[in-house]
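hey can u check if this looks right to u? its 204 residues, i copy pasted from the old doc so theres a chance i mangled smth
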Amino acid sequence: MTPRCFFLALLLIGRIIAADIARAESSSVLELIAQWKVACDTGNAKTCGVLGCTYQIGTDVKQDYFQAVSYHRQACQGGFAKSCSFLGGMYANGEGVKQDFSQAAHLYRQACTGGDAWGCSHLGWMYDTSRGVRQDDLQAVDLYRQACDGGEATGCNNLGVMYKHGQGMSQSDTDALKYLAKACDLKLEEGCAAYAGLKRITSN
């Protein structure tokens, strides 16, 4: 979860910094963070999410999971679905909060409903592995499919694996290869390896 938060922080912080530096080139990063806190407090949910990532991974500030949880929660409540996913990950990993898979599933569901493919993928994994929810292959398949349709590579990979084993749907090597190839196209090494392995088997 942290790498995705890192890249989001780079993307959004980059955009915010570009706008802020245009107004004040002499501002230090810490001064900019102070400005982001003001923006967050006035209802800018994305900026709250950037602050959550900033404290979660320790970008130009001391890493602080408790602050990260607070800002991600504020962003999630403000409608920034990605922070619902990040907060779900923190509950799943016990970062800054007591580990709670049920709460993680709730937050992943909120993120998925809000259009965040990563949240759909992780909620699918929770149904797949019975973490915080009752095991349900059909739900896992549906959520992996939503994630894959949204361009989330792990969702494509996991959907391909479920097709390969006939888990939650009729077994189909053709469909398995289709989704594993998509995961590979999305630069997931695991998907590339699984595709190559299944391709060798089905070609014999």
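Residues 77 and 166 are 38 Å apart (CA to CA).
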